[in-house]
Every structure is written in structure tokens, then in C-alpha cells.
Amino acid sequence: MVSRKPTDAHPGHDQPKKLFIKTYGCQMNVYDSERMAGLLKPLGYQETETSEDADLVILNTCHIREKAAEKVYSDLGRIRKHKETKEGQGGEMKVAVAGCVAQAEGAEITTRAPIVDMVFGPQTYHRLPEMIARAARARGEILETDFAVEEKFDALATIREIKGYSAFVTIQEGCDKFCTFCVVPYTRGEEVSRSVDAITAEVRMLAVRGLREVTLLGQNVNAWHGAPPKGDSGEEWGLGELVRHLAKIDGIERIRFTTSHPRDMDKGLIAALGEEPKLMPYLHLPVQAGSDKILKAMNRGHTAESYVRQIEDIRKARPDIAISGDFIVGFPGESDEDFEETMQLVEAVEYASAFSFKYSRRPGTPGASMAKQVAEPVKAQRLERLQELLERQKQSFNKAQIGKVLPVLLEKTGRNDGQLVGRSPYLQAVHANLPDTLLGQIIDLEITGTLSNSLSAKPHENRISA
Ligand code: 5AD
Ligand code: SF4
Fold first, then answer.
1. What is the pLDDT of residues 91-141, one digit of tens each?
2. Is residue 83 part of a domain?
3. Same domain for 115 and 160
4. Number of domains observed in the structure of the chain
5. 445, 431 in Cβ contact below 8 A?
6. Ligand 1 probe mutation, 29, 181, 186, 287, most atoms within 8 A of CB
7. Does one domain contain both 189 and 332?
8. What is the pLDDT of residues 65-77, one digit of tens each?
9. Is the CB of 184 under 6 A from ligand 2?
10. DSSP tag of 375
11. Which one, of 422, 431, 425, lies nearest residue 452 by Cα?
12. Among the atoms of ligand 1, which is closest to the Cα of residue 182?
């Protein structure tokens, strides 16, 4: 009899192996982690909640935030102890670093953290099973950070774990904008769009499996473009046409997309926001700053005024739309006056939600070596003021829903017994006392109140919309 070592990293079907994935950062990474879990399932890996006795640990990293790499190294320190304990008991643990930190740091990771067996960038996840097998064979490090985007889209599309009634579908990857603060163009590569046929096939598959909502994902999702499907003689499609096409798929009731760039916000998409009922009235459109001097230094390719005008056009098309944004305070050279212009822009736009950050220097980006870096306490003060304003706007947007009847996609059970939690069209979490049998349905609910991060609601009689 040939006995296989219980620690074999390529276990086959007979012996479940424990897989721990930690996801840092953006929704793109959440999506990629789901896919990695899906790819590894046929190899016998089941997800577990802790790295302690995992057979394979994957840190799916993000490079956008401050000190992202340091956080990964500190997590690796903790994992090293688990690995040593496991090895002390005759077991084995493979450790992989994936995502944008992997892409940016490459081989340096294995030098600094020798417990890491594999390092691979976002473009090579589809080759994960092969890498696992190779790592097991070689018992050494593997570096897979080459780009091969088209291949990746195809290989990952059909393999996924589906949870709930809403899913992300990647339609675009990468970025050619080169904002001077950002690492994405270096870590995720150039802008690439997935084909209409591949996207349609994936969304159809999700509809067949009972999903009601899809969120189309991309670093620059509204830069998506593609040839129309065969038989359609029209010109090149933009995101607006793609959305209208996907809206024809039965079962899919809601479509969202994120993240958009002001430079790619074309008329076709704005028209779709006004006309396509399945396209939800929520737009995440980062502006980053309100001073033209700073926007120029950031290489954003738009002005504060052009952004505000764009929002006006969008609101003309869809008056109730919830606008969300990203902001950076304390970019090099930002004076008090520049910051006041950001505050004025926020006052003018009125955001329903937002993410805001202190500028952090990302090595290798132009911003990192710019003169006039802003002192930390100044950044902290500005961030506090900005966040206070954004929070006030969010609360007032939420309060304005009280008394309205909104269709809510009921996604999961709530913390309290008999409670369900769902999303409004504006992406607000909504909870109400309703039976589990309504999970997965879109129900009209009357909004009765607001909490800090959600709305409360009650059933609205005779108003079941799907
Ligand atoms: N410093 C601070 N915030 C950043 N972001 C990206 N890079 C940096 C940086 N170097 C923010 C931007 C972006 C969001 C995803 O993260 O606001 O839109
Ligand atoms: Fe980064 Fe700018 Fe590209 Fe967004 S548009 S991913 S902020 S470079």
C-alpha cells in the first residue's frame, strides 16, 4: 500500500484540508478571495475561520492603504507561530501572499518573511491549483506575478462560491489613469475589459442559481468598453449599453457598478441611470479633492467644477440618486485654502456616503517624492472636519427616507430573532421584522427610522414588487 503523507499539500478528494483566507482592502479582493476558495474546493480545501491549524493560509493583500505591507508582515509574524506549532506536531502549513502587496513587493516578501511559500499577483489566481502542486513538489518558494489578464477572466468566471442573493462580477481590471498617489496602475496593470459574451454568460449563470442582484466590478468600471455581441451591428458598447443588455436577463432585478472615474462618465451611462429601472440609483464617483491645484497635482484629469457639473447632469437624469465618493486630505502641497475648497465641494454635492483618508506616501508613486508633504497633525485635523461633514450629510440622506416606501432586497437574517436585513436601492442596510420565507425577495418596506449605519422599516401592505 502506498501511504500518502497526511501533510501532502495536494490532497485529492478523500481528505478535507483547511484553507484560511484573509482578505484585506477592496471589493475586488473579496471577489478574488471567493474565486480562490472556489478554485481550491475541487482540490479538497474547505474554508476555515482561523489560521491556527490551517493547511493553507492565503493573505489576499491590498496596497492602497497606509502601512498595508507592514500589516501583512505583522500578520505573517503571528502565522509563523501557528506554523511552527503545527510543524512541531508533525503537521504542515503552506503560506501564500496574494494580491497587490504581492505584486508590488514580489520576491522581497520571501526574503523578509521566509515562512512564505508562495507569492502571486492578482493576474495569476487561475493558476493557483498548479502553484499549490508545484509548491508541494518543490517545497520552496514560487513567484507568480506575471500578467495574463484575459486568461484570468476566463479561468475564474465559472468557478465561484455563491452566497446570498447578490454577487460581484468583474467586468474590468486595471487602471491607466496614474493618479500620482495611487499604486493600482502599477499593481493591477493596464485597463482591460472583459467581453460582453463572457459577462453575459456569468450573469445568466448567477440568475439561474437564484441571484437577484449583480454588482459589476472594476477599478475603473465605467472605462469598460467592448464589441457588441454577434448579430448586433451597432458600434462599440460602453457600460450603459452593457447594463441595458444585462437588464434583459430574467431573474436579475438589480444592477450596480463600482468604482467609476469622472473622466469615463459618458452620456450613455448617465442616460442608462435615468432610464433603466434595474440600474440602482447609487453612484460611487470619487473626486478625491476640491481644489483644482491639488486635482492637477494628483493627475486626476478633471476639475472641481467639471465634477460638480457632472453630478448635476446625473441628477437631472436620476433626481433621487445617492452619490458616494472617496476623498484624500493632506496631499502634498494642500494648503488650508485648498482644503476649504474640498469642504465647499462636499457642501455643493451632498453625499449619501463616502470614504475619506489621510494621504499616505506609497513608494514608487510620484506623490511620495513630491515636496511640501503635509504634517500628520494637519492631516488628522482636516480629516476630522471632513468626516464630520460627510457623516452629517449621510445622516440627513438617511433621515430623508423616513416615511418613504422603498423596495428592499432581503439578503440575510438579522442579529435579533425574527429580523431580516436587506438593502435599499440606495445601498442602505435596512432591517425589519419579517419571516425567513421572504429571504431573497424584493419587498416594499416603509422606512420608520434611522440608526447610525442602517434604517429600520416595517412591511408595507400589498406592496410586494418581486
Ligand atoms: N493615500 C490615501 N488614500 C489613498 N487612496 C488611494 N491611494 C491612496 C493614498 N496613497 C484612496 C483613494 C481611492 C481609494 C480606493 O483609496 O481615495 O479612491
Ligand atoms: Fe488609482 Fe486613480 Fe486608477 Fe483610481 S483612477 S485606481 S485612484 S490611479
1. 889 999 998 877 777 778 888 888 998 888 877 777 777 777 666 656 443
2. yes
3. no
4. 3
5. no
6. 181
7. yes
8. 667 778 889 999 9
9. yes
10. P
11. 431
12. 7
